Request: fold
Amino acid sequence: MTSYVDWRLRGPGVDLCNCDYGCPCQFNALPTHDGCEAAVGFHIVVGHFGKVRLDNLHVACTFAWPGPIHEGHGQCQPFIDERATAEQRQALLTILSGQEQEPTAFFAIFASTLETLHEPQFLPVEVHTDRAALTASIRVPGLIDGRVEPIRNPMDGAVHRVSLLLPEGFEFGEADCASATFDTWGAIALSHTGTNALLYELHMGPHGIIRA
Reply:
C-alpha cells in the first residue's frame, strides 16, 4: 500500500464553469458545450501538509479542456495566496498536483487530465462564499474576476434554490447551485455569463473526501 504524507484541507469552495446550471459532469453526462472551462477557488480555514500549517490561505485555479474532462489534454494555471511561505507554497502545489493522493481521489484525477501546467502565480487571492445567500467571489487582481449570485426565477426574479446530493462524489458530497459570471486573463483567458456555479464545503485528504 502506498504511503502518503498526512494532509488535510477544509473550508468553503466554489466552482465556476461554462456549462448550464448544475453541470452535466455531476450526472456523468457530456459537457454543455464542446469543451470545459472553469475557475475554481477555495479558502482553507483549517489545513496542514505534514507539519506545515495551511490555515487561512486562499487558492484559485483556471482550467480549460478542449473536450470532456475525462478525455484529457487540459491546461491549468494555479494562483496561490501571496501570504504563503515558501514551505506552504510547495505544500499546496504538491497537493494540487495529486502526487500525495490516491489515484482515484479528486486532485489526482484532475491532475491526470492535464497536458499543460502553467507557471504558478503567487499573488493576492481572495475566495469568499456565502452559501445561505448563494453568493461567492474569486478574485486575483487583473487575472480572475469571478462572481456568483442566486439563480433567479425568470417570471418574478425570486431566488431559485437547487442543491446536488452526491453520496459517492469525489469532490464534494453536497453542493448548492448558483449562477456564475467570470472573466480570466493570463495564460488561460475565459469569459462567461449566466453559467454554472457550485458552492460546497471542501474537506479533503490523501485518500479523498473526508466524510466524517
Q: What stands out?
A: The mean pLDDT is 97. DSSP finds two helices and 17 strands in the chain. The chain has one domain: 7-207.
